[in-house]
Design a protein that fits this description.
By secondary structure, the chain is α+β, with helices and mostly antiparallel strands. It contains 4 helices and 4 strands.
């Protein structure tokens, strides 16, 4: 299976279990790796035979900016299901970064990574 990756998609969302997170929001970063067969598109040099990663990026950002959820696990699942709606996408790895998570000790990042497929 071939891979198309989008790294560092950024959007402001209001996800989290604490009232401050819901009220003020914060930046979330999303990495996507889409699994699909790119051979038909490459053979014909035809965008319609592959996934339009610009549209996927816009849809993933819209999920982050959309309806708030408590957990980034839930957010990752929603993004994965959005990606799998694209016909050629057979699987997707979604990594959601929450670099401003409300943690009381020094840290660089919090991430949740999931892998989902059609099968």
């Amino acid at each position: 299976m071939d891979r198309v990756a989008l790294r560092g998609l950024k959007a402001r969302g209001h996800h989290g279990v604490f009232p401050k997170e819901r009220e003020e929001g914060q930046t979330f970063i999303v990495d996507l790796v889409l699994g699909l067969d790119t051979r038909p598109a490459a053979a014909d040099d035809d965008l319609t035979k592959t996934v339009h990663y610009g549209i996927v990026a816009e849809e993933a950002v819209a999920v982050v900016a959309g309806e708030p959820v408590n957990l980034i696990e839930t957010l990752a699942e929603r993004i994965a299901q959005t990606c799998l709606k694209h016909e050629g996408v057979q699987e997707v790895e979604v990594c959601v970064h929450k670099p401003d998570a409300p943690i009381t000790v020094p840290f660089d990042d919090v991430t949740v990574t999931i892998l989902r497929s059609r099968a």
